[in-house]
């Protein structure tokens, strides 16, 4: 589903990713773990098409198509979704308006009929209930004054509504208490499907107690230095990343 070959990425003329290769098949959840500055978020931003993230070399195919041939909005319409470590606040734009606009924009790009207001509200109410989101919250400006848990639940609501083919979750557990982590993780797990892939970016093993990965990859200094099963996350929690720093160098 997602195939990355020898990807090198620079940010403000500084090379961050240095020949990274990774394959995530449909139906699997892969976790990327690594220390601060390893390039985890850079990978997510580069795949999503954030400006100033310069692709120096390498290739990425998504469902058999060249991802870098697509503009940002085309990547989203193709089914690529990036959740943010710190979701942005958008004053003056009600959350409901944002959600319906995003959904219909993607439908238009795919040549599909837009969703009607009644059908949209029915679907949002169903999803909001499972994520413990009050409908009054959705009438407020997007993420303005939201707690960390509310912002992350809002992102999961967006994912469930947009139904992307591939999720990139960047530090989804950041700022969450135990209860909020369970609600958000349950929402993410509900999106697991045979035709959907996920890449979970995290520092800590605790998120992977809730979102069980099929594979774990260690990213250090812009390169994946080791891959393994879920047990690799437990090893990292016990011993840290120091053992891999020499390999990255």
TrEMBL record:
<dbReference type="Pfam" id="PF00005">
    <property type="entry name" value="ABC_tran"/>
</dbReference>
<dbReference type="InterPro" id="IPR003593">
    <property type="entry name" value="AAA+_ATPase"/>
</dbReference>
<dbReference type="InterPro" id="IPR027417">
    <property type="entry name" value="P-loop_NTPase"/>
</dbReference>
<dbReference type="GO" id="GO:0005524">
    <property type="term" value="F:ATP binding"/>
</dbReference>
<dbReference type="InterPro" id="IPR017871">
    <property type="entry name" value="ABC_transporter-like_CS"/>
</dbReference>
<comment type="similarity">
    <text>Belongs to the ABC transporter superfamily. Ycf16 family.</text>
</comment>
<keyword id="KW-0547">Nucleotide-binding</keyword>
<protein>
    <submittedName>
        <fullName>Transporter</fullName>
    </submittedName>
</protein>
<keyword id="KW-0067">ATP-binding</keyword>
<feature type="domain" description="ABC transporter">
    <location>
        <begin position="2"/>
        <end position="246"/>
    </location>
</feature>
<dbReference type="GO" id="GO:0016887">
    <property type="term" value="F:ATP hydrolysis activity"/>
</dbReference>
<dbReference type="InterPro" id="IPR010230">
    <property type="entry name" value="FeS-cluster_ATPase_SufC"/>
</dbReference>
<dbReference type="InterPro" id="IPR003439">
    <property type="entry name" value="ABC_transporter-like_ATP-bd"/>
</dbReference>
């Amino acid at each position: 589903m997602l195939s990355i070959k020898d990807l090198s990425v620079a940010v403000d003329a500084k090379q961050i990713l240095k020949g990274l290769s990774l394959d995530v098949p449909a139906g699997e959840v892969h976790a990327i773990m690594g220390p601060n500055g390893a390039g985890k978020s850079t990978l997510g931003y580069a795949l999503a098409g954030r400006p100033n993230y310069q692709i120096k070399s390498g290739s990425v195919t998504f469902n058999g198509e060249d991802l870098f041939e697509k503009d940002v909005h085309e990547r989203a319409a193709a089914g690529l979704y990036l959740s943010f470590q710190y979701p942005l606040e958008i004053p003056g734009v009600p959350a409901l308006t944002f959600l319906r606009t995003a959904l219909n924009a993607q439908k238009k790009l795919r040549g599909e009929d837009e969703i009607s207001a009644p059908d949209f509200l029915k679907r949002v109410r169903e999803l909001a209930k499972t994520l413990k989101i009050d409908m009054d919250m959705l009438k407020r400006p997007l993420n303005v004054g939201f707690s960390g848990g509310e912002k992350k639940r809002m992102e999961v609501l967006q994912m469930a509504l947009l139904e992307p083919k591939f999720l990139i979750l960047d530090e989804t557990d950041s700022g969450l208490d135990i209860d909020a982590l369970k609600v958000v993780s349950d929402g993410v797990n509900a999106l697991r499907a045979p035709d959907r892939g996920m890449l979970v970016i995290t520092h800590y093993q605790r998120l992977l107690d809730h979102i069980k990965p099929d594979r774990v990859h260690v990213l250090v200094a812009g390169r994946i230095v080791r891959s393994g099963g879920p047990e690799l996350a437990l090893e990292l929690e016990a011993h840290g990343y120091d053992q891999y720093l020499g390999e990255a160098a």
